[in-house]
Amino acid sequence: MRSLLLALFVVQLHAVLLPGPPGPYSVSNQVHSLTDTSRQDPYAPSNNTHNRRIMVSTFVPVSKCQDCQSTQLPYMPPKSTAAWGQYAAQMGLPTNIVEDFQVEYCQTSKPAPKKYPVAIFSPGLTSSRLVYTVQARALASLGYVVITVDHPYDGFFVEFPDGTSVQGVVPFSPTDAEADAATEVRAADVSFLVNVLQGSAPGASLPAELIESSDLNKIFAYGHSMGGATAAEAALLDNRVLGGLDLDGRPWAKSAKTGSDRPFVIVGSEANDALWAPYYQRFTGPKMQVSIKGSTHLSFFDLPYLFGVRPLPAEYDEVLEQLGGTIKGARLQEIALAFIQGFAELVLNGKTEPLRGLNTTFPEVLVGEEDLSG
Ligand SMILES: *[C@@H]1O[C@H](CO)[C@@H](O)[C@H](O)[C@H]1NC(C)=O
Ligand SMILES: *[C@@H]1O[C@H](CO)[C@@H](O)[C@H](O)[C@H]1NC(C)=O
Which of 129, 246, 369, 372 could potentially form a cystine with 148 if both were Cys, beta carbons 3.0 to 4.6 Å apart? Predict the structure, then answer.
């Protein structure tokens, strides 16, 4: 048995091409660093002050009629892969868990033949946009321009295209004041990104074809954990962000204190179900709160999905179940994606049926509260 496991482990070292995304579109991908000249970075060390800089990945739908270049890219750039290896080791997992995964894109530098709604994603506190790549590409394949954001000094490791990197300074377990402050910085990062999309951020730009492919009247935000709080906060503070979908995060900052009248949906893990009630009550717009049976907080990362594609040896089963719950990674991805799409239908088109139907489609979905008519 032991030798079989070892043999499996050797096989794991070979590159694995991840399955293609579920939707009708191929997806084109780019990464960009964007500097906000209107803000000093509040986290920068005092002997090295600088403007706030964020990293983004863009995922743009590519239709069958468009020319594009099929390209396989590594799941993460090299320094991030090493940093996540260290992180995995702390959780009792092998250090090479995110190595050698390839993601297929169809790259194009031409604008799409139509404009797509824009979904802005914010990751969990201290985490990285990179571990939500499978979800972002899947959403783009359904016809959304998806932009995932890294918040430097909050993410434990943010790698820039010039090879430099920023280590996190926000603690894994922040005080309430630190969590409020982080949420405010993150929401300002989201508003800055919207400025860039609108061409109103001096000195910062994204490629013209990306802007031409984006419907800037149809922007919403989603995020995991503190990224979900960020989505709610950005929707509250910036009326260009039409709503915030929260994957297993409690609100922080202003939206936690005053609530919000913007559309708000919480898709929580089973473990956190009791956490939402006091915050949920303060939201007065169309809203819904559900939990997913068998899920944990970490289920919403790509990692459980990756382990489904390239299984770890059975000796890791127990730790994986503790971390990611009993639900399969691919199933969680499918459910989360259906909620993001349903939320988009609510926010952009005023349709409530797609969200209402999801507990019938997915028996794992438990509806806690629901008031989608607002
Ligand atoms: C800033 O100070 C820290 C700690 O004293 C030091 O390690 C670092 O090299 C300094 N950075 C610069 C840009 O001077
Ligand atoms: C789905 O949720 C609604 C409440 O929003 C509830 O009335 C209905 O019974 C649920 N359906 C299933 C199949 O659980």
Answer: 129
